[in-house]
Design brief:
By secondary structure, the protein is an alpha/beta fold. The protein contains seven helices and six strands; from the N terminus they run ααααβββαβαβαβ. The chain starts with a helix and ends in a 15-residue tail after the last strand. It has two domains: 9-78, Orthogonal Bundle (Arc Repressor Mutant, subunit A); 97-182, Response regulator (Rossmann fold, 3-Layer(aba) Sandwich). Strand 5, helix 7 (166-174) and strand 6 form a beta-alpha-beta unit. The longest helix has 14 residues, at 15-28.
Length: 197
């Protein structure tokens, strides 16, 4: 793997899901515009330093999510923007996006993430997925990166148990400019009218 790629913070978990997430991020960040053709499989697999089979499984994930389309004999293309997405909303390409942060991509989290992706895909919403690897610094960086990518909402499984003052973290969340939902977590001292409780 090339040194630049080693710095890439791939999620832990099956390699094809890591590759799918990397491609998803590149597409949502505008590296490939809607309608653009992706490089041929061999070239893309070499660039990502993965096998053809791993790349094909990753691309199949993106096809299932509606992010790319395969055209027999022509190649793989970034899907056009859904008509339901208002121009200028979300990412630079106008696609509606929700950020999802989990502490791990192992244990039962793959099932949680699959369910989230299925529901959002059916609603025509893209997913920006990140894992904090149970590291508070990575968690904050990933939330910032998702906000910078133009997500319009966040589904968070934060590492509140690692904090001395988890309420401060929750107070920081309340200052976000996008709506958020805590998944499998409760604020340490929710007020009676707290929408997160």
């Amino acid at each position: 793997m090339k040194s630049a790629e080693k710095k890439d913070s791939f999620l832990r978990g099956p390699k094809y899901l890591q590759v799918a997430e990397r491609l998803r991020r590149e597409i949502t960040s505008g590296s490939w515009a809607p309608g653009a053709q992706l490089p041929v499989e061999r070239e893309l697999a070499d660039t990502l330093a993965v096998s053809i089979n791993t790349l094909r499984r990753a691309v199949s994930e993106l096809v299932d999510e509606g992010i790319v389309q395969r055209r027999q004999g022509a190649g793989t293309f970034v899907s056009p923007l859904p008509e339901a997405a208002p121009a200028g909303a979300g990412s630079p390409g106008g696609r509606r996006l929700v950020g999802v942060l989990v502490p791990s991509t192992t244990y039962y989290y793959p099932r949680v993430v699959d369910g989230i992706q299925r529901v959002l895909r059916d609603a025509g919403v893209g997913v920006v997925l990140a894992s904090s690897k149970y590291d508070l610094g990575i968690e904050r960086d990933e939330v910032r990166a998702m906000l910078d990518s133009g997500v319009q909402g966040l589904l968070l499984v934060p590492n509140l148990h690692l904090l001395d003052e988890p309420q401060e973290y929750v107070d920081d969340l309340r200052r976000l400019t996008v709506p958020y939902v805590l998944v499998e977590r409760r604020p340490p001292a929710p007020a009676p009218d707290d929408p997160t409780s």
